[in-house]
Specification:
The protein is 50% helix and 14% strand. The protein contains 19 helices and eight strands. It has an eight-stranded parallel beta sheet with strand order 1-2-3-4-5-6-7-8. Helix 11 links the parallel strand 5 and strand 6. Helix 2 crosses helix 5 and helix 6 runs parallel beside helix 8. The chain is globular, with a radius of gyration of 19 Å. The chain starts with a helix and ends with a helix. The chain binds zinc ion. Residues 15, 17, 173, 201, 224, 282 line the site of zinc ion.
Length: 342
Amino acid sequence: MSDEDLRALAKVDLHRHLEGAIRLQTVFELSREAGVPLPADTVEDLARYMLVQSPVESLEDALGAFAITQHAVRTYDAVRRITVEAIEDLAAERVRLAELRFSPHFLCEPGGLHWDGAMEAIVEGREQALAAGHDVVVGFIAIFSRDYGMESAERTVVFALRHRERLVGFDIAGPELGFPPARYARVLEPLRDSGLGLTVHYGESGPPPYPREAVEVLGPARLGHGLSVAWDPDVTSLVRDRAVTLEMCPTSNWLTKGVPTVAEHPAGRLLREGVSVTLNTDDPGLMGIDLTNEFRVARDQLGFTNAELAHATENAIAASFLPADVKAEARARHFGWLDRAS
Ligand SMILES: [Zn+2]
């Protein structure tokens, strides 16, 4: 398949952060509007500070690069705007099923916004984008960031339960080392029968015991990244046997030094070993990528055949937290290429 063919394929993105999907131009404009000082006078110059395009020292450093974008969003209008634009960008990439995740605490912190107001603005943003004719189904996932502490975690769970009709899932993110999964078993308990899907960022920067404990103790349907699942055959077997889906993001994992080179990313190997692997973007705004780019990386550097690209896409449809009827309709309407490729 040519690059143009890859672009034209109907795709699924299960792992994309709303706060990491903001356009550079928009960060620039929103910061100006809000009077937030920027380290640059032009959008081009801002790219040097904001875009992560070569490996950072650690995941924590990459999270630091979020600060500029985070401080740009200070009003409900800004939240609505970034949601509309994120959906426009998904549609432009031919993503037909998408899950956008956000941390209410992180998103609302700089502007002192109310979490419920931000949820309102996000839902309005989706309505506005869909009313403009963008043909993509978008579900939302609420996140708590481990480094905000346990009180924030509890508050985020209560928030997610209050908005369970507007969300499809729940996630834990942020720094991993020193934040073992078992610590969160109790706080996640109320979500168990909520109907919300559970995914957790583990095995992104943490070694294999982290994703192992996450699977054994928290019982998530999916792991965010789950990169280190590949470094221990027992953990690989555990994830395969429990049918846990991995939301893999090759470029992001390389930029945060989860793998020394993109070519060493284990997504292809794990897929061939029977693990439910999917391909996703993580933070396209910060990394200057899109999902077509990740498909290209999978094809050119990870050895994915067309059938394997189709397989990863089938995995993503199956593992998406969107309602089954919605997925079936999108599958029938847009994803004919999966039948031809596999
Ligand atoms: Zn992520």
